[in-house]
Amino acid sequence: MYRKTILPSGIRVVTEYMPAVRSATVGIWADVGSAAEQREQRGISHLVEHMLFKGTANRSAREIAEAMDGVGGSLNAFTDKEATCYYARVIDRHLDLAVDVLTDMFLHSTLDPEELAKEQSVVLEEIKTYDDSPDESIHDLFIQTMWSDANLGEPTIGFAQTVTKLTAPDLRAHMRARYAPASVVVAAAGNVDHETFVALVADRFAGFSGTGHAVVAERPRTTPGIRFTHKDSEQAYVVLGSRGLSVRDERRYVLSLLDTLLGGGMSSRLFQEIREKRGLVYTVYSFQAAYREAGLFGIYAGTSPAKLQSCLDVVREQLAVIGEVPISDAELRLAKEHIKGSLTLSLESTSSRMIRLGRNEFAFGRHVPPEEIEAGVEAVAAQEVRLLAQELFAPSELGLCVLGPIDAEAIAWDRSAA
């Protein structure tokens, strides 16, 4: 069901045919994110993403919105640390309209200075929204702490002082440097005929040229530290963790199982120990931040200030236990089935499949079929999980970030022993 064509210009076109659906999701990917930005232009990739919705030589911002609303479709975009994606989901018979709107935005946006001024104001409000959402901003603080001297460690959205200084010529120069055929992937999933889609993309991208700058994936040095940020709030928000693995690391399936065992669901060790047995939190989970040449592993919890020390103690205890005590066959089997079941459920979405197509093309240069993932998960032995836990969760490798009404002196955190 997967096919790939490289156009003469260098644009990669990948599709995944899903005959049981009547919809399709198409995305235009640019191989650039915040990790490729200069520090004084932090947030420019995200601002470009916003501006491509603000009007083209052929459509106003309102006409762009009405084109998709008029057929019951949806239009959106996202920027992360290593890629930017513009995508639309429509009924299959409107796929040509979706491609036309997306390519119009991608190739013919006017980047009007007056619209830029308004959109900079919008982004500043978005930054304030993050600042007022401690359960989200704590993750940025964690990444900044663990990668303190790297572009990957900086927030994708940028900073108020960098975003407001960007000009329309800055955005145009950024696009010329980064939006080139060799760095573009057009992906579609759903009721899509590959040959028809390739012809459509080739027609809409006719004349698109340029060389751009090759993206070199960053491999930052991990700098685990301790960071307390005071904020007047009812809860204390905490992330602790260590370096993780890149998306290309051969042990990524081992880490996925470790993640699932620790904090991947209601039956996970952290959920059961911290919430169900002790009632210390409402939310606790583990997560991975995996990139092409680097990764982080973290555990998030939100708890009352008075319960923070107890929460941290239990987390560190569980990190030590999973590296020392053998994992039972039953628990490992439960984790494997959880991962495989979640994967299968995600494959019912055309949007999820389109995003998988784009990310895999940038990370691996190929499609990674679900069967390969399931086989990789099945091949993991319990001892591999324990050994990876011992490696990643050495006390000296752990970083800690706390956001809330907590002073560093109030928390005992010995990095020499678990």
Mean pLDDT: 95
Give the CA-CA distance, first to last residue: 49 Å
Topology order in helix (H) and strand (E) letters: EEEHHEEHHHHHEHEEHHEEHHHHHE
Q: Trace the largest sheet across and list its strands.
A: 1-2-6-3-5-4
Q: Unreliable runs, pLDDT <50, ≥5 residues?
A: none
Number of helices: 15
- Under CATH, the homologous superfamily of the largest domain reads Metalloenzyme, LuxS/M16 peptidase-like
Number of spatially distinct domains:
2
Structural class: alpha+beta
Whole-angstrom Rg: 23 Å
What is the level-2 CATH architecture name of the largest domain? 2-Layer Sandwich
Shape: globular
Q: What is the helix content?
A: 40-55%
- Number of extended strands: 11
Question: Roughly what fraction of the amino acids lie in strands?
Answer: 15-25%
CATH topology of the largest domain: Cytochrome Bc1 Complex, Chain A, domain 1
What's the short story on this structure?
This protein is α+β, with helices and mostly antiparallel strands. It is 43% helix and 18% strand.
List the helices and strands and how they pair.
Elements: E1 2-6, E2 12-17, E3 23-30, H1 44-51, H2 61-69, E4 74-79, E5 84-91, H3 95-108, H4 113-131, H5 134-146, H6 160-163, H7 168-178, E6 184-190, H8 194-204, E7 226-230, E8 236-243, H9 252-263, H10 269-277, E9 283-290, E10 295-303, H11 308-324, H12 329-346, H13 350-364, H14 370-378, H15 382-392, E11 399-404
Parallel strand pairs: 2-6, 7-11
Antiparallel strand pairs: 1-2, 3-5, 3-6, 4-5, 8-10, 8-11, 9-10
